[in-house]
Amino acid sequence: MLIHGNCHCGNISFEIDWKAAHVAARACDCSFCVKHGGLWTSRPDASLEVRVRKPSLVNKYAFGTRTAIFHICTGCGVAPVATSEIDGKLYAVISVNAFNGVDPALIRRSPASFEGEDTGSRLARRKRNWIGAVRFAESAA
Predict the structure, then answer these.
(1) Number of H helices, E strands in the chain
(2) Of 3, 34, 73, 123, whose CA is between 20 and 30 Å from 63?
(3) Cα dihedral sign for 88, 124, 1, 138?
(4) What sections of the chain are H helices per DSSP?
(5) How many Cα atoms sit within 13 Å of 118 on the Cβ side?
(6) Would you identify the CATH topology of the domain 2-138?
């Protein structure tokens, strides 16, 4: 299934080739995700294209271990994607809340806590579980 999504104003949009019948969504309990209603998903066999109309309106925010970058649209305040560069390769998760036209019955929500995870374990988990085929492109449309 092809899933499209975007921030509220459409400055950051994405398309993901989803190879599953449902979407496993993780409600992270870190302070950033709690305050933003973060509900993230990824599949290592998916491919993701992120398009940015106005790069100057994207803020990149990192906290804690500073190993994940949240791409936040400064036009509308939404963070539709987070990335992590590991061993020279870009990995990503996408916000389920930014999906367009996906039947909510396909989304399986569950809590997620990464408290106490050391940096090495965190990066290894991301390499296993996050989207590994990630492409960023500027787009006029």
Answers:
(1) 2, 12
(2) 3
(3) negative
(4) 31-36, 119-129
(5) 2
(6) 2.170.150
Do 2 and 15 meet the contact criterion of CB atoms below 8 Å apart?
yes
Per-residue 3-state assignment (H helix, E strand, C coil) for 118-138: CHHHHHHHHHHHCECEEEEEE
How far apart, in whole angstroms, are the C-alpha atoms of residue 128 and residue 98? 23
CA distances from 141 to 11, 53, 71 (A): 9, 7, 19
Question: Is the Cα dihedral 124, 109, 116, 58 positive or negative?
Answer: positive
Residues in the chain: 141
Global pTM reads: 0.92
pLDDT per residue as tens digits for the range 112-136: 888 888 999 999 999 999 999 999 9
